[in-house]
Specification:
Distance between the termini: 20 Å
CATH topology: Endonuclease, Chain A
Structural class: alpha/beta
Number of helices: 4
Largest sheet: 4 strands, mixed
Number of strands: 6
Number of domains: 1
CATH superfamily: VSR Endonuclease
CATH architecture: 3-Layer(aba) Sandwich
Helix content: 25-40%
Length: 132
């Protein structure tokens, strides 16, 4: 069994534009997890999930990683609604503070490496995307 994820194809160009912005904390985390460098897991950056764009998603395990910076300060209610939608799909959400990435990336890396769903690819949690 896998995790089936529909996505709004109208958001693809916006997600692509987000990938080129180069927000520092995202670039730092991406450097750790891109090209299967993190436990051999495949991650995508700025991926459309439903009507949302997630910062990172592990295609092999259904884990979404969101970086929360100052732009999220007054969006807790929106973040909660978004998280509930993701959980409803069967996805796991990890939220990391941007300041933690900037100040102690080594600690963030250790924390991620200890997460039970980020140990190895899991066929039963592999994400399959399709347009709606």
């Amino acid at each position: 069994m896998s995790i089936s994820i529909s996505y709004n194809s109208k958001l693809l160009s916006f997600a692509k534009k987000n990938r080129t912005k180069g927000i520092l904390c995202e670039v730092i985390l991406w450097d750790l997890i891109k090209n299967r460098k993190f436990n051999g897991l495949k991650f995508d950056r700025q991926k459309v999930v439903g009507n949302y764009i997630v910062d990172f998603i592990c295609i092999d395990t259904g884990v979404v990683i969101e970086i929360d910076g100052h732009s999220h300060n007054d969006k807790q209610e929106d973040d909660h609604k978004r998280d509930e939608y993701m959980r409803g799909l069967g996805l796991e959400i990890i939220r990391i503070q941007a300041i933690d990435i900037l100040r102690s990336m080594d600690d963030v890396a250790v924390g991620l490496s200890l997460h039970p769903l980020l140990q190895k690819p899991m066929q039963e949690r592999k994400c399959v995307f399709h347009r709606y």
